[in-house]
Design brief:
alpha/beta, Rossmann fold, 7-stranded mixed β-sheet, 7 strands, binds S-adenosylmethionine
């Protein structure tokens, strides 16, 4: 735990708000990750911390045999409904990324989009990814960077809720150095690409109220703050979004950096 309040370790963060309304902003990131991992038909793919299934669905669109695991059952129900609506045969199940039920080497590829980076015990989560992938298989991760827009937003929220002003621990996965420490000794290749995601919203206030309502870490932060402290957080968040806004027309267009990494298990 780093005091930012993101890692509760019991699913409460992600059962708060309505994560599906946030995840539906970025299915493209899961699609890009599946392309980077070169997922092929018939491969056994595990999407760790799948949420509402963004990356699992992307893998299934490539005719892989896909399992998605997450510890919040409500999100998996949403994921299952999405798969059914698209006619995609994905198997979703509840489980903890720190201790998965799968046998060693049972997948060709493990993927995770802004998922495994939130698991509290990072060494254990990395060990589990390495364990369930076969030798020569791939681990493909998309992780918010500490100095990108979302990483800084998490840091700002932590400063308001706990006084912790350092980078939020989950964003460690968004740096090549940290990934090298977590996975490096056990992989034969690690290819990292810094990518940019553009948040588009009708305006700064709309961005903050949307994230407050639906993004669990922010929903919980507001619940923990007094009304006046919550107003202070809102003022800072609106200012922060406005400072990073690049839209020419009064709407919001904010770039946020994330690290796309593909490792090959030795
Ligand atoms: C930001 S969401 C990302 C969801 C999804 N991968 C996506 O691309 O939209 C983070 C997800 O990690 C899941 N998660 C966090 N810690 C977990 C753990 N220890 N075991 C399983 N799932 C976990 C949460 O329940 C949540 O669905």
């Amino acid at each position: 735990m780093d005091g930012t309040g993101v890692d509760t370790g019991d699913g409460a963060t992600w059962a708060s708000g309505d994560y599906g309304r946030v995840g539906n902003l970025w299915p493209l990131i899961g699609e890009l990750l599946c392309e980077a991992a070169a997922i092929r038909p018939g491969e056994r793919v595990l999407d760790v911390a799948t949420g509402t299934g963004n990356t699992a669905l992307a893998a299934a669109r490539r005719f892989a045999t896909v399992t998605g695991v997450d510890y919040v059952p409500e999100l998996l129900e949403h994921a299952t409904a999405r798969a059914a609506a698209e006619g995609l045969p994905v198997s979703f199940e509840t489980g903890d990324a720190e201790r998965m039920r799968f046998a060693d080497a049972s997948f060709d590829v493990a993927v995770s989009t802004f998922g495994v980076q939130y698991v509290p015990d990072q060494d254990r989560a990395a060990a589990e990814l390495l364990r369930v992938v076969r030798p020569g298989g791939r681990i493909a991760l998309a992780s918010w960077s500490p100095d990108g827009f979302l990483g800084e937003l998490l840091r700002l929220v932590g400063a308001h809720t706990s006084g912790h002003t350092g980078p939020a621990a989950p964003t460690g996965w968004g740096t090549e150095d940290h990934l090298e420490k977590l996975l490096g000794p056990h992989v034969s290749a690690l290819t990292c690409t810094e990518r940019r995601w553009l948040f588009r919203f009708p305006g700064p206030d709309a961005f903050v109220s949307y994230f407050r309502a639906y993004f669990g870490p922010l929903t919980l932060a507001y619940e923990a703050l007094s009304p006046s402290a919550g107003d202070g957080l809102t003022t800072d968040l609106v200012r922060y979004v406005t400072e990073h806004d690049q839209a020419p027309d009064g709407t919001v267009e904010v770039p946020s950096t994330y690290l796309q990494a593909v490792a090959v298990k030795a």
